[in-house]
Amino acid sequence: MVAATRHAVVVAVESAAQDPDVVCVSGPDAVRLPCALVLTTPPPRAEVGAPAAVGRGRVRVGGEVVAVARWWRVPRPVLTDPRAAAARAASRPVPAPPPDVPPDVTDAGTADLPTRVPRLLGLGPGLTPAGDDVLAGALVALSAAAHPAAGRLAAAVDAARPFARTTTVSAALLVHAARGECIPPVAAYLRALDRGTDDLEAVRADLLAVGHTSGWALLLGVHYGLAATRTDREASP
Amino acid sequence: MTRHVELRAGAYHDSVTLMQVSRSVAGEPGVTAALVAMATDLNVDLLAGMGFDPPDDAGPADLLVAVDAADDAAVAGALARLETALTERSAPSAAGFGDAPAPRTIGSAAAGSDATLAFVSTPGAYAFADAMDALESGLSVVVFSDNVSVEHEVRLKDEAARRGLLVMGPDCGTAAVGGVSLGFANVVRPGPVGLVAASGTGAQQVMSLLDGAGVGVSHCLGVGGRDLSSQVRGRSTLAALDLLAADDATELIAVISKPPAPEVAEVVRAHADRLGKPVLFALLGPGQPDLTAATKEIATAAGATWQEPRWWPAPQERTGTYRSVRGLFAGGTLCDEAMLIVADALGEVRSNIPLRPDWALPDDLRAPGHLMIDFGDDRLTRGRPHPMIDGALRSERMLAEAADPDCGVLLLDVVLGHGAHPDPAAELAPAITAARGRAAEDGRDVAVVVALVGTADDPQGVDRQAASIRDAGASVHLSNAAATRKTVELVGAPR
Amino acid sequence: MTSTSPLLSEEPRVVTAGVELFADALAAQAVPTTQVDWRPPVAGTEADLAVVMGDPRRAASNRTALERMLRSTAELVDVRPAAEVLGLQRGQFLHAGPPITWERASGPMRGALVGALLFEGLASTAEEAEARLVAGDGIGLEPCHRRGAVGPMAGVVSPSMWMFELRDEVNGGTAWCSLNEGLGKVLRYGAYSAEVIDRLRWMTDVLGPLLQVAVRRHGPIDVKGIVAQMVQMGDEGHNRNRAGTLLLLRELLPDLIESGSPSREVAEAVRFVSGNDHFFLNLVMPAGKLQTAAAAGLPGSTVVTTMARNGTDFGIQVSGTGDQWFTGPAQVPEGLFLGGYGPDDANPDIGDSAITETMGLGGFVMAAAPAIVRFVGGSVPDALRTSRLMYEITLGENPAYAVPILEFRGAPTGIDVTRVLRTGILPQINTGMAGAVAGTGQVGAGLVQPPMECFTGAIAALAAAVGDDD
Q1: Whole-angstrom Cα distance, residue C75 to residue C215?
Q2: Contact B179 A57 (CB under 8 A)
Q3: Smallest Cβ distance to C11: which of A69, A72, A197?
């Protein structure tokens, strides 16, 4: 057990050979992370460091056993028209950052992100630091656009060894982000940008409301990723 | 002997619930027969058939209670049991300033919630109104109910098209939306394959085999068995294809159906070609690949390495020549698939859902030679729960078959997943033992082959179920086609 | 192009109707599920229901009906004699409910007609009046509703009686109702003694003209606004109109005083109105008539536009079938009795006042009037339950009439014939009870429902009209 909040407990399966697998045992009110195992009741109480077991379709934690009732679908957004989505994003500037976001993160939107990875990784307070959220947002946007820069950024993140540099939860989420998997509000925002739906502002407000700094940082990352698809497209024939 | 008959006005319960209540009342000591059912014409006839005098003025909204017991005390015991069983069922009513009364229509329920979908399993005569209510409330709807007319089906689907919604059904046994099983469906992992299914158990076979092959499913949208007929013209199939084409999670689409009417097939294929995502067709019919072969094609297209579905040989492996195949099925499509394979190898197969009109079974469902019965057919489920929920009727037939010298192999299906019997093996294993015992009394051996449709994550657990069915003396196959080929092999060449 | 349906992109949230097993299976998968407490529709209606549910005109017509009802306004614009506003000739009488003949009329209806003949000077004794009514000699009877009017209890209107005139400027409608006589021995409950006739004369000679001057001086009075306030002050607009009556009086008082009429007459009129808690009922009713008439005559619409009783029959009218009445035997209300009266003394249900329920008030907002739940023989939880149940048979909620205890939920509005039959829930009506013997007056108050025949008859006619190109 590596982390616990009121809404979720995080279990990591350590392995000598590779990075750990992470499962987030979440209550119904928790943000649905791509690694979430969702319960209908609040998550079991358990201390960080307490033993937990994962396998055979079950997770054992805090004296309780959780089994599968169904598999929820982790959102993996796809942009059908990345150019239009990027244009819509560009016409809506990212709002001012919340307090507590380090300056290196707030100006990340203007930098060349792959080179900034070592500075951003793990930067900021909380379970998912704002620096990581920016990277995750950008990874998801680039994957959704099926843009080659997605691979470059993922490689840069991987090379910076997230499991050694940031929280285990955040590192695991970056692995999902590299696969294009994200929390539902990010998927909804990308879908709304892609299709120019009427609820775009409402969906954007939902994303900004996630966590303390996370929503804002994810949005910054998404905008960065979409902007990158534009410059590259315009630069090459 | 004491007989008790009463009519309770305005006490409605659904038929499945009442079946369970009837069963627990009939299980009381001293009770020889019990019927607790809504007083529909059918149930009133049933009551008369049990030798009771039916009460006058009975209507479908009245609860009929009939008990035949040894004495007054036994009747009293049965009625007490009835009260407990019914009160357990009814929701607690709030007193004082309590909660609002439960919604009485789908429209009312939808108005008070942020629902995305309605599931209608009301009796067929009423289902159209309920489904229309759902559509008017802005909800896509699964119509599980059967006996909805084709005119009403077309009307519902046109209304859905006008509102940008989807009608799954009527007679839609299986659907899975975002991993949620609706009706009878297996627990499968998420993945790139989106299914459009005009066949319930066909869809369950494909989903389960894909899951076993490590290929996940995004959604399985049922469309109802008649959707690809020339009357309905694929209305829901086309809508479902569009939905899956627009769904981010779906990369590959498969349509599972009997072969459509030719002019409809053309429309559907032309539509599929324009979707921008690959669409495969698993069309079950003569000369077409079976569902397992079709699933292999889907899995391969999704990039998986195919391995033949698992199977568990019978404790005593048999050889030799068994006489006729007797297939007793809960799933209509599984029955169809088995008949296609057996007919191809062995010739004529008599059935209540025959491949050819002249192979139809008489009303008593008895005939010599190869024979297959779909216990899920409308005519056999009236006034009874579906065989996937309650296998009692099939167990009786297994025993009867075991006594028939012409019966060589019993071919059975077991379907797991949400909605199905919580432990079908617990019901089927003793029935297999009993049937084999009955045959042994006559000095014969009856081989039992079971097609087990399920996944590791199903609430019943596919391995646990397979083990207990096998221990009862059957061979168990996750592929229905493979199970059927096993029976063909046991029977041998045509005689 | 494909739409972005929430079906596949959102976590499923399901409404289920039918077999419980499937709702249980969804609950086992942790899916938010609402299970409908489903019952079969009223026996024998399933085929007609299916035809009507499949009518492509229904949904849009019902939406229009509800919109018109919700935007309907009601202003008191004048007070005038019935002869003048309704064109009633000498010998013509209006009555409550669906059409009725003297032969089939109940005690209180007969009593009120006798009283009306005496009041109009068409007979000098009750016996003489009765003889004329039996002979039908120069006497014409027709429902109030046929002329855009409504009348409580017997609802008898004669040419000399004065009427409130209300306008709905948004939908362009006008409706009328007589002036309320008060409680006890009154014509509308079938009493016709000298005191009853004397009171009617005073109302015609003094009260009517005085109210006319006051209303004309004041200008239009917003009756809808008063109804909205009274519902928040413990009135349900059918059996409790105390707050509404006082609010009306507050509006009119300055103009009554400044009317130039003798102060004795003004004081008499004010004393009469303030001493009669039901005075405002006769303004709620025409407001209801305006609201429901606005929804009338829409082809395919299944909205009930009238519920009315004549003491013998209960009748309803439905938007999609126009003026056609669907009737069944009027029931005897269940409730509490005044003094030594009992159930045997009560006449079956009577009056046009069920227009208040048709508009979403009365029994439909019983939760707003806890003070009188015992008067109609109920309890507060009953009242809450009843009002909440009425949402199951109505198309929408009227935000203008908000019920505080239901978190200011709007009154359940637009009774839908299909929902009544699908749920088997009948509209709940709060009502007064008249004595069965002519001349008795009020014997109690209670709760009553229409007979189901009204609705089965309506669905058959609605089904028969499907496919009409009107």
Answers
A1: 11
A2: no
A3: A72
Under an 8 A CB cutoff, do A70 and C11 touch? no
Query: Using CA atoms, how far apart are residues B477 and A115, in angstroms rounded to an integer?
Result: 55
- Please name the member of B187, B216, B456 whose beta carbon is closest to the beta carbon of A70: B187
The amino acid present at B131, given as its one-letter code, is: A
For C2, the closest chain A residue by CA position comes to A195
Number of H helices, E strands in chain A: 10, 7
CATH number, span C296-464 = 3.90.1700.10
pLDDT tens, per residue, chain C with 470 residues: 334 578 998 889 999 999 999 999 998 898 999 999 999 999 999 999 999 999 999 999 999 999 999 999 999 999 999 999 999 999 999 999 999 999 999 999 999 999 999 999 999 999 999 999 999 989 999 999 999 999 999 999 999 999 999 999 999 999 999 999 998 789 999 999 999 999 999 999 999 999 999 999 999 999 999 999 999 999 999 999 999 999 999 999 999 999 999 999 999 999 999 999 999 999 999 999 999 999 999 999 999 999 999 999 999 999 999 999 999 999 999 888 887 788 899 999 999 999 999 999 999 999 999 988 877 777 888 889 999 999 999 999 999 999 999 999 999 999 999 999 999 999 999 998 898 988 777 888 889 999 999 999 999 999 999 976 54
Rounded to 10°, the helix C194-202/C107-119 angle is: 60
3-state SS of C126-144 is: HHHHHHHHHHCCCCEEEEH
Place of tokens 């896509």: B140
Within 8 A of B12 by CB-CB distance, chain C residues are 38-40
- Which of 3.40.50.720, 3.30.1330.60, 3.60.21.10, 3.30.70.60 is the CATH number of B2-89? 3.30.70.60
CA–CA dist C319, B28 (Å, integer) = 54
- Domain spanning C72-285: which superfamily? Enterococcus faecalis V583 domain (3.90.1710.10)
Burial status of residue C239 (CB atoms within 10 A of its CB: 0-12, 13-18, 19 or more): buried
Q: What's the predicted TM-score (pTM) here?
A: 0.88
